[in-house]
Specification:
Elements lengths: L12 E2 H8 L3 H10 L6 E2 L5 E3 L1 H16 L4 H10 L1 H27 L1
């Protein structure tokens, strides 16, 4: 592959973009914002939330713990409180594997 497009990353994502990424309601994101200290989106004067890429990664970790591993809200909070670095490194590996899977599926479809 001679040319590799680089992914365009934004500095801030709106609440609508975040809910579309995770396919959830606005209320669930707001609830997780209240419950988890690692989730701190910026708010403007109107109260609109703007999520940084770090917030998106933290949301991925939270959804992985709750949906995939079956943690309760309190269990996920305790796990993140004690193992933040380990969870972030695991999420990095998961993201890399998902990108690899996407690439391999694209190659398969081209064949």
């Amino acid at each position: 592959m001679p040319f590799k497009e680089r992914e365009i990353s934004k500095m801030y994502y709106t609440m609508g973009e975040v809910t579309a990424m995770f396919d959830v309601n606005h209320s669930l994101i707001r609830y997780y914002e209240k419950e988890f200290d690692i989730l701190q989106p910026k708010k403007n004067k109107k109260g609109n939330r703007y999520f940084t890429p770090e917030d998106i990664e933290n949301l991925k970790i939270i959804f992985h713990l709750i949906r995939d591993k079956g943690y309760t809200i309190q269990g996920a909070k305790d796990h993140l409180r004690n193992n933040v670095d380990q969870s972030k490194s695991q999420q990095t590996v998961i993201n890399a594997l998902e990108n690899l899977k996407k690439f391999l599926l694209e190659v398969r479809d081209e064949l």
